[in-house]
Design goal:
By secondary structure, the protein is α+β, with helices and mostly antiparallel strands. It has 6 helices and 5 strands; from the N terminus they run ααββααβββαα. It folds into 3 domains: 85 residues; 96 residues, Beta-Lactamase (2-Layer Sandwich); 157 residues, Helix Hairpins (Orthogonal Bundle). The chain has a 5-stranded antiparallel sheet, sandwiched between helices. Helix 1 packs antiparallel against helix 2 and helix 5 packs antiparallel against helix 6. It is rod-shaped. One of its GO terms (biological process) is chemotaxis. It comes from Saccharobesus litoralis.
């Protein structure tokens, strides 16, 4: 029973009591006797007792209802306290995680930052703040950077925000320093993943770029060296071919010298034959001269012929001697030339071996350089 219903019931009881008193008063005026007054008094007492009992029932019911309401309020209070404690724990965890995340981000040497759609900085880690001491959270780049630089940066960021064009590892040079920048959209899950800015990471890649440029430069030098090695290989091949040709020529010359030496030996045999003939002719001329002398005047012409034959034999003998001397000298020269040719041929063979060894080494060097 609600308080309004209880008040209505109490009002009805009160009105009934008043009505009873009024009726009793009216009746008393017509029948003023003790019995009537007794009944009136009894009725009034009954009404009063009934009213008191009703009041006690109402109070008891109200107390019970208040107790239930109090228990309900206490249960809701306990539930709210539990929810508040849970929220407090979640808040403490979130704060601890935020502190941890900030600590981790501050330990990273790369520049990590967050901007809103108006290019104002929302967050920047310690490395970025130390590198750019003029940077202030809540402001954009134009506070501390040149306008041309800001214009380029904002153009890239608008491309990321509006067209979701992801910038990844874009290398830029500032003086002698090289940077690699990556920028992606920053979406808020609380706003249906609406794009609210960009997240950027910038890294100093000067050492890596210099290493890459050094490697490229070394690669160009290696290519030039490979070309030079190939040219040397070509020259070496030509030199080997020329040496082989020279060795062939030397072999042919050696064969010719051997043939000449063999011809000299045949000439020497012929000279010996001529020498023998000259000696015999000389003896015959002497004998003819003796016979002519014996014949006297009739053998005079024969004596002249014998004299001429003797002179011819002597000149032939002298010529043969000179030829023999020349052939001996030629044989010495040929023998010396043959030895020289053999030494030259051996030298060419050694040279060809060295050239082939050098060519093999150049091939290995070319292969090694090509691997780089």
């Amino acid at each position: 029973m609600t308080n309004a219903q209880q008040d209505t019931r109490d009002s009805r009881v009160l009105y009934m009591s008043l009505a009873t008193l009024i009726v009793a008063g009216v009746l008393t005026s017509f029948t003023p006797n003790l019995v009537t007054w007794g009944w009136i008094v009894i009725a009034i007492i009954g009404l009063i007792v009934t009213y008191k009992m009703q009041q006690q029932t109402v109070v008891a019911h109200q107390v019970e209802q208040d107790n239930r309401e109090l228990e309900k309020v206490q249960a809701e209070k306990a539930q709210l306290a539990e929810q508040l404690q849970t929220l407090q724990q979640q808040l403490e965890t979130a704060q601890a995680n935020e502190t941890l995340y900030h600590s981790v981000l501050d330990l990273i040497p790369d520049w990590i930052y967050v901007k809103d759609t108006q290019h104002n900085y929302v967050f920047a880690n310690k490395s970025f703040l130390e590198a750019l001491p003029d940077l202030e959270i809540g402001y954009s780049d134009d506070k501390f950077m040149p306008p041309d630089f800001c214009k380029k940066i904002w153009h890239d960021e608008q491309a990321v925000i509006q067209r979701n064009m992801r910038l990844k590892d874009v290398e830029e040079q500032a003086g002698e320093t090289w940077f690699s920048t990556t920028k992606v959209q920053w979406k808020d899950p609380k706003q249906a993943n609406q794009v609210v800015g960009i997240i950027g990471v910038t890294r100093n890649v000067t050492e890596a770029v210099n290493d890459r440029l050094t490697v490229q430069n070394n690669s160009e030098q290696i290519k030039q060296k490979i070309s030079r090695v190939h040219a040397i290989q070509s020259d070496t091949t030509q030199a080997r071919e020329k040496a082989a040709q020279c060795s062939t020529v030397v072999d042919k010359m050696s064969q010719i010298i051997v043939e000449i030496n063999s011809g000299n030996e045949q000439i020497e045999q012929t000279i010996e034959l001529i020498k023998g003939l000259a000696s015999q002719s000389k003896l015959l001329s002497i004998n003819a001269a003796i016979e002519a002398a014996k014949a006297g005047e009739s053998g005079r012409g024969f004596g002249v012929v014998a004299h001429e034959v003797r002179d011819l034999a002597e000149r032939s003998e002298q010529a043969v001697t000179e030829i023999q001397s020349a052939i001996n000298s030629s044989s010495q020269v040929i023998n010396t030339g043959t030895g020289t040719m053999e030494e030259t041929n051996k030298a060419f063979e050694v040279t060809i071996q060295h050239i082939e060894s050098i060519s093999g080494s150049l091939d290995e060097l070319s292969d090694d350089l090509s691997r780089f």
